[in-house]
Amino acid sequence: DEPCDVKNIDSSVKDCESVRETCPDKIQDLKVGDCELTEFDFCDKVLVLADSDDEDIEKVLRDPNPHIEDEQIKTAVETLNLTLEEAFFLSYALGCLQVIDMSGQTMGLKLLWHTFCEIKPDFVESYVAYHYFRAKGWIVKSGYKFGGNFLLYKQGPPFFHATYVVLVEKVDSQLNRCNGSLTWPRLHGLNRLAENSGKDIITCQIVFPDNLTPEDLMTPKSLPKFQVNEQLTKRWISSQERIEKEQS
């Protein structure tokens, strides 16, 4: 690629200005068939000008022959689906997302928090874990495919496979499990699954303080009160440890 040339950029700007001055009627009064266009629909139409690489540049400037044609390559409309944790993080932490309800009203953070807690009973501990790992620079995605709550990526799924599978636990101030869902057989099975896919398991404990009331949980102002403990879990293989000791 050639380096950027200010002279060439200025020339291009002057060429465009020359086209507007030379034939303003052709720029302003564009027609498709017998129908004048007052507004352009850029999703369906495209503005075509004469070839600017033509050797007779003076001819092109005198008559650029602007006309509208149908866009041959249709624009693909993609839908972005956000999880509850992703949506609340964009609204609460980054402030770059507004959520609209079915009546067209913007939902405030308190209403958004209350609604998400009703939709997902474990949303509080799930969001605390999500926010915690996002703040540490990880790209956090759903981990249901591998039996966990989240997957942690260094830069995202297009660049690397996930490094960790995250299991979220709700515990009290004495680190006693509140839901009892993480049993040793389940942990052993998830660990084997993670090993086969080249991942490690992180157990993320969300500590609920004793002085936290149900009223506190109804607002995101309670988020700073939570503590997070993370533990890296690996399966111990005695034969592998013996080989490593012999080699050392």
Q: How many strands, which pairing sense, and closed or not: the largest β-sheet?
A: 5 strands, mixed
**Given the helix and strand composition, which structural class is it?**
alpha+beta
Helix content: 25-40%
Q: Which strand order do you get reading across the main beta sheet?
A: 5-6-7-8-9
Listing every helix as H and every strand as E from the N terminus to the C terminus, the arrangement reads HHEEEHEHHHEEEHEEH
Distance between the termini: 53 Å
Quick recap:
Residues 123-204 form the tRNA intron endonuclease catalytic domain. The protein is α+β, with helices and mostly antiparallel strands and 248 residues long.
Q: What is the element layout, followed by pairings?
A:
Blueprint: H1 6-22, H2 24-28, E1 31-32, E2 35-36, E3 45-48, H3 57-62, E4 67-70, H4 84-92, H5 109-119, H6 123-135, E5 139-142, E6 150-153, E7 164-171, H7 184-196, E8 200-207, E9 227-233, H8 238-247
Parallel strand pairs: 7-8
Antiparallel strand pairs: 1-2, 3-4, 5-6, 6-7, 8-9
Helix pairs in contact: 4-5, 4-6
Enzyme class: lyase
Pfam families: tRNA_int_endo
Catalytic activity: pretRNA = a 3'-half-tRNA molecule with a 5'-OH end + a 5'-half-tRNA molecule with a 2',3'-cyclic phosphate end + an intron with a 2',3'-cyclic phosphate and a 5'-hydroxyl terminus
